[in-house]
Design a protein that fits this description.
Layout (H helix, E strand, L loop, with lengths): L1 E10 L3 H19 L1 E7 L4 H7 L7 H6 L3 E6 L15 H11 L4 E7 L12 H6 L2 E7 L9 E5 L5 E5 L5 H17 L3 E6 L5 H16 L4 E6 H10 L6 E4 L1 H13 L8 E5 L5 E5 L16 H13 L4 H16 L2 E2 L9 E2 L2 H10 L3
Parallel strand pairs: 1-2, 1-3, 3-12, 5-10, 8-9, 8-10, 13-14
Antiparallel strand pairs: 4-5, 4-11, 6-7, 11-12
Helix pairs in contact: 1-10, 1-12, 6-7, 8-9, 10-11, 11-12
The structure holds nicotinamide-adenine-dinucleotide.
């Protein structure tokens, strides 16, 4: 029997509802496969602002670091908007935890799940051919973390700059993650850059080529970011692992998530050089449906599957969770966000129960 300690950041809006169902799924996996999962509740987000006056209470990172992995529901909502001081805003907590846990790799799988083809905005035949992309986004470098300036010029009014910088070290560590992941999948890496224009991209490409030589069993290609944006819509089936820098990854991973059909189905993982990794659905706190038993818990439950695979090395357990989600989807039980004509409509709690029942 193995023991795993998991930090739960239930957060705001639908967060507590979807994390509640994910916990039931972990407990079911524990029963079936003989593991012990224990949980530590961590207060973060708007609920923390309400309780202690700041969204990222002192000691949050230390509490998370005392665990083997972190599961986050979602944080944020209109009550803690941009008119509030930074330390009360939930987004401040999200950036702080990524930095404090050193989470430089963001993994977002975007796969066409069977039974979801009609919900995809792609051409029907493209959706039916299927795709399974692992987007690997660099999360702590590039233009989002570079120096920002705004100043007055003599003749052109105000001017602003954002500095985009990458070091070989930053590129190499994310590149390695991508190649190692490809070895667990279909052995292909597409590295996305803008090397025809940007100096950071030319350095990125040089480092990636060096790494590609170290992984001869992995097929490697470069792709310009504008072409990649088109290819995700035209022929997403060509991709396996796609690795790119922070801003390109932000935009491309949202594009890739949309072509799957529902935001309520997409998990993510943020990983550093060591544990704990942080696992969360890609959607937000959905204040419009909070507390109504309407939220789709699948993205959070699929985030648990990623936790099993990438933090605990429990591949069979991860597959069992993914298979359970697929079997429920195919049997036509859907929450409102993905329900179509003729589907059987269920709420958050019923969906959690169906997935638990399908785990073997
Ligand atoms: N990582 C995070 O915690 C995170 C990420 C994104 C947004 N947010 C925050 O969430 C709040 C709401 O943001 P938003 O409305 O732009 O995005 P959102 O993802 O919360 O909601 C967008 C739409 O998708 C629906 N939706 C989202 N998740 C769903 C689910 N599991 N099941 C069914 N429907 C679902 C919502 O009802 C809404 O109509 C904001 O405060 C934002 O800052 C947090």
């Amino acid at each position: 029997m193995s023991n795993y300690k998991i930090a739960l950041i239930r957060g705001d809006g639908i967060g507590p509802e979807i994390v509640g169902e994910a916990v039931k799924v972990m407990d079911k996996v524990g029963q079936v496969y003989g593991h012990q999962f224990s949980y530590v509740d961590v207060l973060m987000g708007g609920c923390a602002t309400d309780a202690v006056g700041k969204s990222y209470p002192d000691g949050t990172a230390e509490l998370c670091k005392s665990c083997d992995a972190v599961l986050l529901g979602a944080v944020g909502g209109p009550r803690w908007g941009s008119d509030k001081p930074a330390q009360q805003r939930p987004e401040t907590a999200l950036l702080a935890i990524r930095k404090d846990l050193g989470l430089f790799t963001n993994l977002r799988p975007a796969a066409m799940r069977k039974g979801m083809e009609d919900a995809s905005p792609l051409k029907r035949e493209t959706a039916q051919q299927g795709f399974d992309i692992m987007m690997v986004r660099e999360l702590t470098g590039g233009i989002y973390f570079g120096k920002r300036e705004r100043y007055q010029t003599e003749d052109r009014g105000q001017e602003a700059t954002d500095l985009m910088a990458y070091s070989e070290m930053e590129i190499e560590r994310i590149g390695r993650k991508a190649f190692e992941l490809a070895r667990l999948r279909r052995h292909k890496v597409t590295s996305v850059d803008k090397a025809n224009v940007l100096a950071t991209s030319r350095l990125w490409r040089e480092v990636m080529h060096r790494l590609a030589a170290e992984y001869p069993d992995v097929t490697y290609e470069d792709m310009l970011v504008d072409n990649c944006a088109m290819q995700i819509v035209r022929n997403p089936g060509q991709f396996d692992v796609v690795v790119t820098e922070n801003m390109f990854g932000d935009i491309l991973s949202d594009e890739a998530s949309q072509v799957t059909g529902s935001i309520g189905l997409l998990p993510s993982a943020s990983l550093g050089a060591s544990d704990p990794g942080l696992y969360e659905p890609i959607h937000g706190s959905a204040p419009d449906i909070a507390g109504q038993n309407k939220a789709n818990p699948m993205a959070t439950i699929l985030s648990v599957a990623m936790m099993f695979r990438y933090s605990f090395g429990l591949a069979a357990e991860a597959q069992a969770v993914e298979d359970a989600v697929d079997s429920v989807l195919q049997s036509g039980w859907h929450t409102a966000d993905i329900a179509g004509d003729g589907d059987k409509l269920v709420g958050t709690v019923e969906m959690g129960r169906l997935i638990c029942d399908a785990i073997r």
